[in-house]
């Protein structure tokens, strides 16, 4: 898995403001967390033909319209057609509410405008969103960005993308040399041999003795 698009913002900007930039393909299923919760946008996305799946707050006002039957042995707790919001601020469209449990046993409420998929498929789609969290964890662990050398938007973007490019180059070196060394080792060998002939670095990566 790899990200197709990224929007870098300041910490002050709310996540919900980025949806307008990210949503542009009606063939996609947009999966997001509670930070993007917006009933008006859910209605607008549905009217415009975009599919979404989001986590809903447990204290959200919900009016059940219909209860879908679940297959025997399903891990999904419930599957309903609902209206969300209060009478003063209620969604115009009917949505689908699923209640599921995560790996830690916590109950999650998922809201979507997709009625053509099974409850299990919807649940698995939301679980796949965790890949985003893993990607940010990976960035912190592997890109070795200790500090930012500039604080403008362009400076930060350049540093992040350069770090990504450097990591990808290390992976390419690993592939081309058939090395069993980890990318972290390859990076360390490069720093150690930065001003030495390239063959010394290559031999280290390949696990050969350096004369």
Explain this structure to me?
- With 211 residues, the chain is an alpha+beta fold.
- The chain folds into two domains: 119 residues, no CATH class; 60 residues, no CATH class.
- Helix content is 38%, strand content 17%.
- It contains seven helices and six strands; from the N terminus they run αβαβββββααααα.
- The chain has a six-stranded mixed sheet with strand order 1-2-6-5-4-3, sandwiched between helices.
- Helix 2 links the parallel strand 1 and strand 2.
- The chain is elongated and about 75 Å long.
What's the short version?
The chain has 211 residues and is of the alpha+beta class. The protein has seven helices and six strands, in the order H-E-H-E-E-E-E-E-H-H-H-H-H. The protein has helices at residues 19-22, 39-48, 119-128, 130-142, 153-176, 183-192, 198-206; strands spanning 29-32, 51-56, 62-67, 78-84, 95-101, 107-112.
What key phrases describe this protein's structure?
38% helix, alpha+beta, 17% strand, 6-stranded mixed sheet, 2 domains, 211 residues, single chain, 7 helices
Which geometry do the CA atoms define? elongated
Please provide the ordered H/E string of secondary-structure elements.
Answer: HEHEEEEEHHHHH
- Cα radius of gyration in angstroms: 23 Å
DSSP summary: helix tally = 7
| Number of extended strands | 6
Average pLDDT reading: 84
The low-confidence runs, each spanning 5 or more residues with pLDDT under 50, are none
Helix content: 25-40%
What about the largest sheet?
6 strands, mixed
The neighbouring-strand order within the major sheet is 1-2-6-5-4-3
By helix and strand content, what is the structural category?
Answer: alpha+beta
Number of individual domains: 2
What percentage of the residues does DSSP assign to strands (E)?
Answer: 15-25%
- How far do the termini sit from each other? 40 Å
């Amino acid at each position: 898995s790899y990200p197709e698009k990224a929007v870098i913002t300041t910490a002050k900007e709310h996540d919900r403001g980025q949806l307008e930039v990210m949503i542009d393909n009606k063939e996609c299923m947009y999966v997001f967390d509670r930070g993007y919760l917006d009933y008006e946008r859910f209605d607008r996305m549905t009217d415009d033909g975009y599919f979404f799946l989001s986590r809903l707050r447990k204290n959200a006002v919900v009016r059940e319209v219909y209860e879908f039957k679940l297959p025997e042995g399903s891990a999904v707790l419930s599957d309903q057609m609902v209206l969300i919001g209060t009478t003063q601020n209620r969604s115009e469209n009917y949505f689908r509410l699923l209640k599921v449990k995560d790996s830690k046993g916590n109950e999650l409420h998922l809201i979507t405008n997709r009625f053509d998929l099974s409850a299990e498929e919807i649940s698995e789609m939301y679980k796949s969103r965790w890949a985003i969290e893993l990607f940010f964890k990976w960035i912190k662990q592997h890109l070795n960005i200790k500090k930012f050398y500039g604080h403008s938007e362009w400076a930060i973007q350049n540093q992040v993308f350069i770090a990504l490019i450097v990591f990808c180059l290390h992976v390419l070196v690993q592939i081309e040399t058939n090395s069993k060394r980890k990318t972290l080792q390859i990076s360390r060998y490069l720093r150690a041999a930065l001003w030495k002939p390239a063959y010394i670095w290559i031999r280290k990566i390949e696990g050969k003795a350096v004369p």
